[in-house]
Write a structure and sequence with these properties.
The protein is of the alpha+beta class. It has helices spanning 2-28, 81-89; strands at 30-41, 46-47, 55-60, 65-71, 91-101, 104-112, 121-129, 132-137, 140-141, 149-159. It has one domain (2-159): Beta Barrel (Lipocalin), CATH 2.40.128. Helices cover 22% and strands 47% of the residues. The relative contact order is 0.19. Residues 30-158 form the Lipocalin-like domain.
Length: 160
Amino acid sequence: MMRLGVLVAVCFCFQSGFALAEDIAGRLAGSWKLTSWTIQIIGGDATEPFGPKPKGRAVFTPDGFSAFMIARPDRKPATNDADSAALLKSLMVYTGKFTIDGDKLTTDVDLSWNELLTGTSQVRFFKLEGDKLSIRTAEQASAVLPGKRVVGTLNWERER
């Protein structure tokens, strides 16, 4: 009988944790506009890699997919190969299935702007307060500042 009680308690805790993650995923569902992006360089200064007013959109679907798009606000159409290369350096995009565990948001990337992240699991830490979402990276190699280790913070507001 004791084993059955433990099994029921474990199942209840698992289901409760699953239900909580589903609730948070439901609250994330929708479209979010980027309001700021800063990168703290480990052992150095903070920077805004795409300037003080980057453009960006995060989309979370109810069935567990996400897409993140971030761009410099001053992008212009390319007229030559150098312009095309500059456009690539002024953009970040990735998509994939996401999961939630506590304050940890993990995206299993199925597509990325330069293949750097494709096939990886991107772990972020988030804080959701009403229509404001803050996402922070763990310390990692920078995708936009080669050779640097960084912690990035992105702030988003829900758009309805």
